[in-house]
Specification:
Layout lengths: L21 H14 L3 H15 L6 H10 L15
Length: 84
Amino acid sequence: MIPAEMSASRPHNRRKLISFPSEVLLALELLALDSHRSIQSLAEEAFADLLQKYNRPTTLKEALRESARRLPANDDAPPKRHGT
């Protein structure tokens, strides 16, 4: 599910208008009714799953952790020797 930092109650939420074909919107509305959830809740779950699929961080803390892992100083490989 969505981390607490990304929940709808967060005061600095931004809005983005997304359009769907009418049949997709109807299917989402029916799913929301059947599952007793809001379309917002379904969208948050879907986008979290999409970000996870592509190994993208969803919080600032995760982004900083990932960027630190990409630095060569954090690699386990031994340093290359020059001139040999």
